[in-house]
Amino acid sequence: MNAHRIAAIPGDGIGKEVLPAAQRVLDEAASRHGFALSWCELPWGCAWYAEHGTMMPPDGIDRLGETDAIFLGAVGWPGVPDHVSLWGLLIPIRRAFNQYVNLRPARLLPGLASPLRECGRFDVAIVRENTEGEYSEVGGRFATPAGDVAVQESIFTRRGCERVLRYAFDLARARGGRLVSATKSNGLVHTMPFWDEVTAEVANGHPDVEWRRMHVDALAARFITHPEDLDVVVGSNLFGDILSDVAAAVSGSLGVAPSANLDPTGENPSMFEPVHGSAPDIAGRGVANPIAQIWCGAMMLEHLGHPAAAADVLAAIERVTAEPALHTRDLGGTASTEEATSAVIAALPAR
Ligand code: NAD
Ligand code: IPM
Ligand code: MN
């Protein structure tokens, strides 16, 4: 039997609840399709930090490099500053493995209500630049005669912009043929005009894609007022981050929003993790929505070359969301993580 080696990093908070839940679903789907997932359980995160003073062991990246994919829950917990926990685990993985595309689909699943009163069709793919941009360690804090100053530089390389924009335009070509690029060239005088210039160059090679740029503030509003107009949205690291939470909210909850951190060259393992975080406000109570993590699992199966198994998992998710009695609290229901997970397993199409 063909077994894929998968690193499982539950991380912190609800990551420890939704990741094992999704593993159950994936194991079941895999066995029905004649393959297996060999999980390498890695207890890295804020508890590991408390014991060892680092978020992962020194050879952590090397160990992940030996896997076929990384399945991650969430990172971050009160007591460890967020910039320490995230720059100690999640962000180094994205960078070490050249996962320059963060693909974040969002759509209205059957049975889910958008908080928007008028929300007809909503089916977007956010392509977020994932290894540079506003997320940088360049800068610092300085004491000056005029008072303390903090400086945070953004780094946009031509190669970094070009490759993610090319991915987004290719995706738009394969989907509805429409793309919006998030900019802010009215306020950011160096990076965003550069991003816009590279966007126009890449667009020239995709004459079949209808595209426009929008300032990110107006685009955020557009998600609320005309969600049906959007198809592929591409943005820098920070803009894509913020817009993906907006998209998740439009689709009903952060609890149903997946993401895939992809190295499209295939040279390194890609990483699959929900858009949401560790949700300290609900962690430990067994009420977290496992759908985002399970959907991430479907994206991982697809990536590993099992589109039929991935489609089964998505079909099972849709059968569960269609049933209000199976909704978790974030969706207005009363189901627990365990009930929603078991329902997804029960809803897997028979093989
Ligand atoms: P969050 O996404 O953890 O939570 C925001 C809100 O959404 C909370 O009210 C939470 O209860 C709710 N929510 C999130 N996921 C849910 C789910 N599956 N089911 C039901 N409700 C859900 O964002 P935050 O509060 O800003 O961050 C908490 C911690 O997580 C911080 O340490 C942050 O840095 C970290 N974080 C990590 C990741 C990641 O690892 N990829 C992503 C985002 C935030
Ligand atoms: C996400 C998260 C992370 C990000 C944080 C926790 C660093 O918000 O994956 O969306 O901004 O990339
Ligand atoms: Mn985010």
TrEMBL record:
Pfam families assigned: Iso_dh (PF00180)
Signal peptide positions on this chain: none
MF GO annotations: D-malate dehydrogenase (decarboxylating) (NAD+) activity; magnesium ion binding; NAD binding
Keyword Manganese applies: yes
Alphabetical keyword list: Manganese, Metal-binding, NAD, Oxidoreductase
Catalytic activity: (R)-malate + NAD(+) = pyruvate + CO2 + NADH
This protein's name: D-malate dehydrogenase (decarboxylating)
